[in-house]
Amino acid sequence: MQNNIQLSDKILKSFPSRELTLTPLKGDGGIIRTSLLTLVMLAFIAFFIYQIPNIAYDYRISQNAIPVDAYVDGSCKTRLLVITDCDVDLRYQGHSVSHSFTFLGFNPGDIEVLPLADANDPSKLTVDVAVDNVELRFISVIVLILLFIACIIIFIRSQIVTSQTKKALLSVGTKPLKLTAIPAKVVNVNRQFIATYKFDFNGKQKSKSYSGNKKTAPFSFERDGKSYIFVVYDPEQNIPYVLDLPLKRIQATPEEVQHLYSALTEEGII
């Protein structure tokens, strides 16, 4: 096992020596989670694509914009801290326009706007805030669309790795397994503990994550300022499988869990 650290004989001997069966866990991820995340990203992409016609509308007006004494009514809301959505109704010389636009910026109070019209077509109305931010709006939309597309690609690639490792896990069968610890990046996000680690799979380095709450978190510890996770592996396969705190991965008995925890405590690991 590459990049693993040497565990003491006391810890290794405290790990169950009987034949073990690996169990897929919810924290490994799965097609349902990937599908939901992908749908969320697609919804964001659709939302930002919907902004493009409004941006084009404001851009065309900006080429021949003139201030007009139009009636304006509307409101703006800030979402996700930096995305401001505005809806305005404008009336001028018998023309009525309902216009929506989105731009990046935090505006907690009222926004003062100046009505504008296309000098060549007074039926086309907008406000200066939409016109002044038209370039930023276009760039932001393109960047965010590309960002969400990149997220979808990452989710799909992650799901492929998850499916491959799950297939490998199920192929191990029931046999004695080895315990070791490998480097990982462990973060706490919304009470979810997420461990991300790298390993070799069919000659290629892969990255994978495991997540769990306080009771099902990845079994991790720190040494010399670095984070590590406990994993088990089949020496013939050499693929690491993250251990969870209650050791449900290997279906350990309460006595086996206590025996391992005692050894880790005596060694100052936990």
Automatic annotation (TrEMBL):
<protein>
    <recommendedName>
        <fullName>Transmembrane protein</fullName>
    </recommendedName>
</protein>
<keyword id="KW-0812">Transmembrane</keyword>
<feature type="transmembrane region" description="Helical">
    <location>
        <begin position="136"/>
        <end position="156"/>
    </location>
</feature>
<keyword id="KW-1133">Transmembrane helix</keyword>
<keyword id="KW-0472">Membrane</keyword>
<feature type="transmembrane region" description="Helical">
    <location>
        <begin position="30"/>
        <end position="50"/>
    </location>
</feature>
